[in-house]
Amino acid sequence: MTEVTQLTPGIWQISLPFQGETDIIGSYLLAGSDEIALIDPGPGSTSEALLEGVRQAGFDPARVTHILATHIHLDHTGGVGKLLASMPQARVFVHSKGAQHLIDPGKLISSSERIYGERMQELWGEILPVPQEKVQVIEGGDVLNIAGRRLEVHYTPGHAIHHVIFFDVHSGDLFAGDVAGVRLPGITYGRPPTPPPDLDIEAWSSSIDTLKKLRPDVIYLAHFGPVRNLAPHLESIRAKLFNWGDLVLRAMRENKSEAEIIELFIAETRPELQRLSNDPRTLERYEIASNYPMTVQGYMRYWRKHHPERLEA
Ligand SMILES: [Zn+2]
Predict the structure, then answer these.
(1) Span from the CA of 222 to the centroid of ligand 1 (angstroms)
(2) Cys staple from 237: which of 102, 127, 181, 244, with CB 3.0 to 4.6 Å?
(3) What angle (nearest 5°) sits at the alpha carbon of residue 138, between those of residues 169 and 32?
């Protein structure tokens, strides 16, 4: 079931049901000045739920004018091509490094098929190309006047090279995508999602500085929802980003296999989450949002690509 929550005047959160769970993937709807914008409308597998959510918020999907992508991972924008059939007026705003993958998703699909295999369709649904004339390329430093707001675009690589955030200077609302980590409702536990192939620890840490300097009042996470106590949250994401990287590096230097590193990683990091919640469902929900194998694979690729010298014993 799609759940819709009005967060402030003009901002709605749409919780998309994903793998039988809610409150893991969230889209945001902004409305004002006769415009409707969707931030990260989600994967193709939930596009019907997204349309239902727009209606529940009180709007006709055909009147959506803007789709804003924080980045082009499938759980954020995999469904955009499909949604455009119901949103003929919408233009899609995406960072220059991600635009081509929306226009021609071939590479994105083939690399995802290597990771997800047979589960590809069930997880992500149909991934359709976005017509080039619908795409508006954006860069850090741009300002978008959309839905009665002035949204600054800030380039925030680290999780993905095509990642941006959208910041409303006047209201203090910041739409963070994945760069402020994953934190599911009801628990004070943040996790940096570190999938391959773009993970860059140093760039991500600088992006966290970018967020802090903006001094937002609220950060809206894609996974999931608003965070208000920002400094401790962001610093816990940064600390894990580095600590988890060190853990994987040590194991690689000991010539452990990927499977062994994943096992070690879970043994070392899961107890912290288990101390905060003894509900096995919480663990499963975090796995759906950002799983351990991909976390490890992202770091392994990062060390090989960016610091091969540190892998020598
Ligand atoms: Zn992502």
Answers:
(1) 9
(2) 181
(3) 45
CA of 261 to the centre of ligand 1 (A): 22
Give residue 33 CA to ligand 1 midpoint distance, Å.
30
Q: What's the domain range around 11?
A: 3-236
Tell me the CA–centroid distance for residue 313 and ligand 1, in Å.
32
161 alpha carbon to ligand 1 midpoint, in Å?
10
Q: How far is CA 267 from CA 51, 189, 237, 253, in A?
A: 40, 17, 19, 18
Rounded alpha-carbon distances, angstroms, from residue 277 to 34, 47, 284? 44, 31, 12
- Count each helix (H run) and each strand (E run) in the chain, helices first: 11, 13
Please tell me the distance between residue 146's alpha carbon and the centre of ligand 1 in angstroms: 24
Q: Is residue 298 part of a domain?
A: no
Q: What is the pLDDT of residues 18-33, one digit of tens each?
A: 999 999 999 999 999 9
Task: Compute the distance from residue 86 Cα to the ligand 1 centre, in Å.
Answer: 25
Residue with tokens 């082009």: 72
Number of domains in the chain: 1
Pick from 73, 92, 81: which is nearest to 130 by CA? 81
The reply to whether 291 falls in a domain is no
**pLDDT tens digits, one per residue of 143-201:** 999 999 999 999 999 999 999 999 999 999 999 999 999 999 999 999 999 999 999 99
Q: How far is Cα 274 from Cα 266, in angstroms, rounded to an integer?
A: 11
